[in-house]
UniProtKB/TrEMBL annotation:
Listed name of the protein: Diguanylate phosphodiesterase
Residues of the full protein shown: 512 to 790 of 790
Residue intervals of the EAL domain: 24-276
Origin species: Pseudoalteromonas luteoviolacea DSM 6061
Amino acid sequence: EAKSAGRSQIRYFNNAMRSKLKHQADIENDLQHGIKNQEFELFFQPIFTLNAPKVVSFESLVRWHHPRNGLVPPDQFIPIAENTGQIIELDLHILELAAKQLAQWQKQSLPSVKVTVNVSSRHFASLEFIDHIRTLYDKYDLNKGSLCLEITESGLIENLGLATKIIEGITPLGVQLYLDDFGTGYSALGYLHQLPIHVLKIDKSFVDQLTTKETPLIDAILSLAKSLQLEVVAEGIETPKQWALLKRKGCQLGQGYLVSKPMPSQQAMSFLVAQNTKP
Ligand code: C2E
Ligand code: MG
Ligand code: MG
Ligand code: MG
């Protein structure tokens, strides 16, 4: 009896595996078509100064208009694209969309607007990436430093020497590097000191813990950023209390549903104009 129970568990496991693999294969196939058919749209979420508040930039966040499944959020396909290697092509496509949108805004007499784009740390394993970014700045005649990048630390640390070369290669364009989800990865401080990055994004999980109680981790991150002369963005601010505490602790920049969710481009632009012309 034990044997047959074991066997049925194996069968169950195999079925679950098979359907997971099938799902991945479907997505892989659909991603290929999706890029060709222009099914991806960028949404934009404001990054703002905690003091004013004024919008200083937008984070671009991809959405997929899937022909059968509707609007698909990135968590459902970015990890799969990472596994299949399609992330390289997808990210380059997204970078192009972001550059195109940014150029359009800059022509509409909003020269100071900035956009950050999330990219896989895989790009930081090949010097070609420098040319991709340089070409985008040339092709769309982007203002210096207006297109910036968000990366997580894990992939960078594996290949520190090369990653450093690549970051230094794009720094003359004014590209700033935002270290995303800071505090959730390796956070090896020795590496942090060596990486030529400009901004730390404190992960939402730390912001969630902001109550009136002691907040040693956020305090430590803020003081670390200060001594390394890095700017800080707090991610996922949802309450006025979190905002007030972050501001009091000296965090300069924030992002979160309290101010705005990610929005389609037109709405994002109206939001910026309305917010930044307020006295
Ligand atoms: P991320 O870069 O850390 O982006 C922050 C995520 O938190 C976004 O989810 C954003 O919508 C969400 N968020 C922002 N403020 C709040 C808040 O106050 N409350 C809550 N509950 N959530 C908030 P999203 O758009 O689903 O993106 C998820 C992740 O997918 C991103 O995390 C990023 O790692 C990845 N991703 C998104 N777009 C791209 C892309 O174009 N390329 C690549 N390679 N990855 C992307
Ligand atoms: Mg990000
Ligand atoms: Mg993040
Ligand atoms: Mg994230």
